[in-house]
Structure formats: C-alpha cells, structure tokens
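Please complete every field before forwarding. Incomplete forms are returned to the sender.

SECTION A: IDENTIFIERS
Entry label: holo-287
Bound molecule: zinc ion
Molecule representation: SMILES string

SECTION B: INPUTS
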Amino acid sequence: MNRYWANYHSHNYYCDGVESPEAQVQAAVQQGVSTFGFSSHCPLPFLNGWSMKQDRLNEYLSETGALKEKYKGTIELYVGMEVDYIPGVCGPADFADQLDYTIGSIHYLGTNWNGDPWEIDGATEGFMKGLVEVHGGGIEEVLRQYYAHFRQMVQQDPPDVVGHLDKIKIHNIQGSLYDEESDWYKAEIDQTLDAIAEAGCTVEVNTRGVYKKKLDMYPSLSILKKMRLRDIPIMINSDSHAPGEITLAFADTAEQLRQIGYETVRVLLQNEWKDVPFDKDGLSLDK
Ligand SMILES: [Zn+2]
Ligand SMILES: [Zn+2]
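SECTION C: PREDICTED COMPLEX
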C-alpha cells in the first residue's frame, strides 16, 4: 500500500502566504501529498494585513481551478477558503457555493478600543490591549464569547471544517492567562464539542503552532480526547504559508492522534469526503 499525506489548509500569495498556488502544488507533490486544498483567507469588508483583496477573488478561483486540470493524475486538488466567521459580517455560507469546501475560523471577536473588529489571532500586544481596555482583563468572559462564537457558527452557518479551534491559546503563554484544566473552561469546551458533533463538522488538527511557536497542536490533546469520545471526525492540516511548510509536524501529530484512539482521518477523494486509516507514515489511500 502506498502512503500519502493530505493537507487542506494552505495559504499562497493571494493572501498572506508566499509564492504561487502552483509552487504550493509542486511542493506538495514532492512532500508526498496526494490530495491538497487551497484555502486563502476570504476577502473581508474592512482592511487588514492578511486577507485576500475582494478584486482578486475571481482570479484566485480561476487560477486554482486551472491547476486542478493541469495536475490531474498527479495530485487531487480542491479549491477552498479559510472563511472568517464574524456574526452579521461574514461566514462560510457567503462563499461556499463557489468552493469545494470551507474552513470556518475565528480571527476576530467583537470590537477593539477603536470600535474596529478586535483581532485575536495576531500579536499578543494587540490582544492584551483589547483584553484590558475593552474587557477589563476578563479573560474568562472573553473565552466564553470565543467558544460561543464557534457554537453559533456550527449551528447557524456550519463550515465543512472547523479551523484551529483553540488558537486563542497563543496568548496564554505558560498558562499566564487561564488554566485549560479549570472547570469553567472544560465546560465551555464540552458544550462546544457537543454543538460541533451535532452539526457534523470535521475539526482540523492544525500543526502550525507546533512548527512555528513550539506550542501544542490546535486543538490541545486534552480537547482531542474529548472529541474522540464524541466521534468527531478530524483531518491533519499544516496551515502552511510557504511551500516548505505543507507537511510539517505531520508524523508526530499522527502518532499522538493514534495514541488517543483516532484510527481514521477525513479526506476529500474523488470529490467526496471519506474516512481513511492513517499512522505516522501517512494515510492509507486506495489507489
Ligand atoms: Zn486562521
Ligand atoms: Zn490559515
């Protein structure tokens, strides 16, 4: 049996990734990937430093669509987007019709000290300024809102894939802001995972924190264990922003997922979602 990898979370120069979609495809092939998805950040109705610009959307769709044909027989390609969920502003349903799949992510939560969308996915400095000036340092309230947003997303506008579920932990340096083992936090997680299981979404296991920040994967292993008990499907994604990052930390992550009892990952094959066996050497795909 031949072994391959899959990755459906990748950025290129249409958003804040480096190099072209085709450079990503060539690197994916070299790294043993046989099914691969493009997922640039969706355009947003306000300026930021990392999203695709609205006027590039058609070009993104046509360029990545053409690559599907060009590489037929070499690698399966899928055109997706990482869509921001911002209630009343933007969500997966705004783009799903044009795509093979959507990743729904939360990068913004409410408004910041200027009344602009509060970016919680960027530098810790901006996160802390919002936490202190807008929320009076109330991290518990902020985290409750954060997970309530995930629940609202999967209930009202479910993506195919839930993106980096607990990524807000990038600011919780050495547990300085909150304890993942506290009862209220675990209760928020339980409630959120129940909603995800009910909605039938896949949750990605995102390795970017492992190779960029020497953090745990997103979500943490303790959350993944709870997901396993609910039979929530997973996929392993790298959230790559450069061709060299497409399969980083996959082997170790796969090994840890096997140890907690996961035996399959969800992939797109011949345009259908399928659950395939995996281990640290890759996925067992029928070829
Ligand atoms: Zn993201
Ligand atoms: Zn991403």
